[in-house]
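Handout, section B. The chain below has 440 residues.
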Amino acid sequence: MMSAVRETIFALSSGRPPAAIAVVRLSGPAARAAVEALCKLPEPRRAALRRLRDPASKAVLDDALVLWLPGPATETGEDMAELHLHGGRAVVAAVLDALARLPGLRGAEAGEFTRRAFENGRLDLTAVEGLADLIFAETEAQRAQAMRQFQGLLGGRAETWRTRLIEALALVEARIDFSDQDVPDDLIGPALHAARQLLDEIDETLRDQRRGERLRDGLVVAIAGPPNAGKSSLLNAIAKREVAIVSPHAGTTRDVIEVHLDLHGFPVTLLDTAGIRESDDPVEQEGVRRARARAAAADLVLWVVDAAAGEAAGVEPGRWIVRNKIDLVGGAGQTPESGNGAFRISATSGTGVDALVAALADYAGTLLAEPALVTRERHRVALAEARDALERALAERRQGREDIIAEELRLAARALGRLTGRVDVEDILDVIFRDFCIGK
């Protein structure tokens, strides 16, 4: 935790000048004094035009819109101020220099405003992660998922689960610690019933095929197959630009080439891999090894074969067959008799490529369209720890060891607390005294 006495931090939030407007933001106990050193303080939460002057020389720095936002109802939970400046480099530099010379102020570190918001209870960890994902979102689906997390989709659910778990734990703790008081005998049954319900809900959440992580990182599609089948040409055709080198010589692609695409709002990473064949060349052998590894780890493999060569290949789960170079044998589009996952294309002329891209977009939508609670491995690990602790608590019912049940419920609550970053053992006592009025 940071010290109780903190400096005011300031940061330029509009990116690198020059820009039409640059916003300098201040947060902390000295924010008010800093604004008053530059100009007359505006009314709270009302923008006002102010002439900013250097505190030392009294020289005019800029005419700016100034906002004064007293805490704790602010983004960081502290007093905040915003200076909306003209975005010229000299203007911004002069204002930042004047601020840096004021006592109690320093430049903000990366992410410090968000960190203070978390420390002051304005955001939980899942919302902080959602904000980070929102900043780096590249597609509409990623933006929507990040916004849901930022607005508390997982954090709110986790806090609800933790509250219910604390109430169940309070029942067990009351049975253990206050057995000589006027407390009902059968408290373990309702507590474990609540634990069973929570376990089922967490289990259902974890059975999501990792949709959240896939959407956040992008669906991975590997283009694989034998040499000279036209894999690099297909990559270029889908990407609509020259990404990979195309050559009639086998073994041109030696390493894995990645291209990030937005297919109907869903993120897809295409991998162009080396042609898979036996080779005495150690460099090509390494390329083939990497190709096999990346194809094995991909969400989908487009297995490209030469239609003119008549190579045999079949559709399998997680693998589509793309027969390329049909311009040499005739035919186009999806092969009806092969069903879904079989395509006939010409990467050089573009015939059939649009149908393949549309199918890829539909595939991504099928896997990723449904909203997911879990979007990071950290979330999954914390929920798995809570689930495992709940299972152990339920398994102890036959043994009747109330202290072990209480400990497992406590571990489950702690795991959920780590998920949001808010762990407070005092709430257990609060529930006990509120519900049972012990000690009155």
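Note. Residues 192 and 394 are 6 Å apart (CA to CA). Compare this with the example in section A.
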